């Protein structure tokens, strides 16, 4: 009986410590990606934002004390490796075999446990079509999310400077040219 009470008390302490250290993660959609939601499909964009939030949340839940307490993210841009169903229905020349370079850009703010706030800017886009073989629709965007989450879990806040969509030359927002 004594062991049972000790185990229950230990679990309660662990649960309380976990709840106190759980980071809050929020994700919103940036204006450029909102424009693209018509081409990609609104559901695709919402699912992508949920994937970003879940990926960062899981990484921070496993992280140590150096992890931030609050992360407010803005999904500025995302480019698929394969056309979305919405894109395929709009263009008969696209299929699930079409490939392109993808990736994602994320900005936001990170609040540490001491209350300090830092800007965050991270982007990763594949730059070589040869690396896209066998990918699903959002593989490169997921890779960008994983890398960002890993850095945040280690206590590193990436700041690659302001995001400029016009500088992403390899992935045109309003064109199907990136698919081959």
Give structural notes.
The chain has 5 helices and 4 strands. The chain has helices at residues 2-21, 31-40, 42-62, 85-90, 139-153, and strands at residues 24-29, 70-79, 103-111, 117-125. It has a 4-stranded mixed sheet. β3 and β4 (117-125) form a beta hairpin. The longest helix is centred in the first third of the chain and has 21 residues, at 42-62. The radius of gyration is 19 Å and the shape is elongated. Mean pLDDT is 81; it is low at 7-20 and 169-180.
Protein topology:
Layout: H1 2-21, E1 24-29, H2 31-40, H3 42-62, E2 70-79, H4 85-90, E3 103-111, E4 117-125, H5 139-153
Parallel strand pairs: 1-2
Antiparallel strand pairs: 2-3, 3-4
Helix pairs in contact: 2-3, 3-5
Which structural traits does this protein have?
180 residues, 4 strands, 40% helix, elongated, disordered C terminus
Average pLDDT reading: 81
| N- and C-termini, Cα separation | 67 Å
Number of separate helices: 5
Order of helices and strands: HEHHEHEEH
Instruction: Report the C-alpha radius of gyration, rounded.
Output: 19 Å
The largest pleated sheet is described as: 4 strands, mixed
Helicity level, as a percent range? 40-55%
Largest beta sheet: strand ordering: 1-2-3-4
Number of β-strand runs: 4
Strand fraction: 15-25%
Integer tally of domains = 1
Q: What structural class is derived from the secondary structure elements?
A: alpha+beta
Shape verdict: elongated
Brief synopsis:
With 180 residues, the chain is of the alpha+beta class. The protein contains five helices and four strands.
